[in-house]
Amino acid sequence: MTRQRPLLLLTIAVFGAIALAFGPVAARQGSPADTRPPGTSYKAPAWTFNKITDGVYHAVGTGSLVVMSNATIIEGDRDVLVVDSQVSPGAAWALRDELKAITPKPIRWVVNSHYHFDHSHGNQIYGPDVEIIGHEFARQQILAGKSQDSPAREFYVGGVPAQIKGLEARLATASADKTKATIQNQLDIQRNHLESTNAVKPTPPTLTLTETMTLFRGGREIRILFLGRGHTAGDVVVYLPKERIVATGDLMVNGTSYMGDAFVPEWVDTIEAMKKLDLGTVLPGHGAAFTDMAKLDHWQAYLRDFWSQAQRFHKAGTPWEDAARQVDLRGNAVHFPGIRTVGLTPNHGMRRAYEILDGKVK
User: Fold this and answer.
1) How far is CA 41 from CA 66, 171, 205, 230, in A?
2) pTM here?
3) Residues 216-233: tens digit of each pLDDT
4) In this structure, what are the phi and psi dihedrals at residue 238, rounded to the nearest 5 degrees?
């Protein structure tokens, strides 16, 4: 027994050291941040990871789970940076879970391209070992509740309960099995979406910038840049100079971008600043990745057209609601096929234009 005692003490010491070393990790793994959130009863996969180059992916939703915005995945030598955390904790959880099939490296950094709900409401699933990076303005807006309480969120999410009721009514009257299955699938997706958005706890960035920040992850240089006001007052882009890739959030989307919180004249200048980067590929916040840099010119032309018309309506004393119905942007339809009729839907962009022209927004 006397000879066994030193061995016993050594064993206790070793296991004690292990407990001290891994105790915090175990606590984190059992924390709410690592618990599967509501709204994740979906048919995988929720994401398609489109490879852009080695270690860089553009993640887009498959439709089996409402994710709303894209994500950009950037691998470093030891860890991963994700651009935009999605519309809900459920969508963010699905991205993190499915990303394991692409890389075993842990997510260490999350960048919010801006504060809007569809790009920041997944922040809460990340524990203290993950830094969430954003512009100082984005942090301020999220802390003030602006990501949760906004016309944009109401327009895009507020109608979900009514959609669910409508689908339930259609399901009750459907007779064909194939029709029932289709409606049931749509109903499941929307119920998931509502459950997940109801679980959101707006969580601000933990690390902020006002101009630039650069991360060096092995051989990967990652620049986070504020190029000027545009879609919001605090949009950042994530630029990989070596790979000539930029993730833009909603400063550039593959289509027309929401303008309800925009600074339209400055947006044109911000896109001009983006064009000065050495670019080969744009990874937008919505829509497919693209390499045609003429799209930046087309978006600037759209913004100039909109602003010119908004100024004329405002000068004529036309109420902003009427101006939103009358604005004619069909001259841009060759580059934006989604423009089919006169008018702007949602009309928030025209209201915003009037706020700027009235001096209510500086």
Assistant:
1) 12, 20, 28, 36
2) 0.89
3) 999 999 999 999 999 999
4) -115, 120
